[in-house]
Amino acid sequence: MADDLAPEQLRAYFVLMESASLLHHAVEQQLRAEGELSYVQFQLLMRLAGADGPLTMTELADGVVYSRSGLTHQAGLLEKAGLVTRGAGPGDQRSTVVEITDAGRERVAKVLPGHVEVTRGQLFEPLSGKDVRVLGDIMTRVRDHMRAQPPRSAAGRKRR
Amino acid sequence: MADDLAPEQLRAYFVLMESASLLHHAVEQQLRAEGELSYVQFQLLMRLAGADGPLTMTELADGVVYSRSGLTHQAGLLEKAGLVTRGAGPGDQRSTVVEITDAGRERVAKVLPGHVEVTRGQLFEPLSGKDVRVLGDIMTRVRDHMRAQPPRSAAGRKRR
DNA sequence: TATTGTTATACTCTATAACTATA
DNA sequence: TATAGTTATAGAGTATAACAATA
């Protein structure tokens, strides 16, 4: 239970953060330039496009956005752009269901080739097939672990 | 040269972005709560703390920030908080050199234990030593590749 | 009472363009 | 002319708290 990280850990942490930042930046630029979308908006559209039917706001938020109001805001922007619709849910009357429109699917289709090109050129080019599998495996474990963790606010960790 | 990614690639890409986002969020919360720092500010302080002496704005910006004005702004905030100083460079008279103060080092020291705790709890707990080495190796290659890439603006990639 | 979602609001971050000063 | 950095400013993203409506 040393109080600091091993050098390999520190190195892995920083390089992960840095490369993720670079990738995020590259991807944001492409989405903005070719489709006037942020990555968050792209994620929301991808989720809706992949879902069988409409999703509730809560289902949609999961893992993409960290506050309710943030999602309300983004969904409002997507709705104003005609890419999604919002309506009353069939079951629980409190819920709002969000559905992707044809224009939304078209926007995804418009943006996707360039997106694939960027991710391939930036992320995958220096990686072998094995690297990709290993990376996917490792990050899947990390993600599942993080999501299983208690919300982990700063409380309870304070020492002074 | 298929126009889409292999399923493993798509999966690796999305899970990388998602886990990086979760990690970034957790880390921002810790830094903000315990040290009133953003991750960018933390990175800048860490660089300055690790450097032998002062760094120029340009050296400091590298890989952390994507616009000159962004760095000017962040450096201004750090200076106002007393964590760094800015002065005229010794050689090139156009340059500004930035140096960390004692208060800046104290702030880093104050924040670091909690930071280590968060990264260990969120990122490293589900990973073996080998995983960490492999992850560091893969992401290092990705980072080096991205940094070697031409700035890669949206121009030249447009199809329609 | 707890949960779903929205609203109002304020704050931070980032980026673009115009500008100064030095090389 | 090109480079280092700042300023002004505008836009986007995000979060908190108060709120309404339903469970």
Automatic annotation (TrEMBL), chains A, B:
Q: InterPro entries in the record, alphabetically?
A: HTH_MarR-typ, MarR/SlyA-like, WH-like_DNA-bd_sf, WH_DNA-bd_sf
List each copy of the HTH marR-type domain by range: 9-144
Report a single Gene Ontology molecular function: DNA-binding transcription factor activity
Q: Which domain of life is it from?
A: Bacteria
Native source species: Amycolatopsis acidicola
Q: Which SUPFAM superfamilies match?
A: Winged helix' DNA-binding domain
Q: Which PROSITE patterns match?
A: HTH_MARR_2 (PS50995)
Q: How is this protein named in the record?
A: MarR family transcriptional regulator
- Gene Ontology terms describing biological process: response to stress
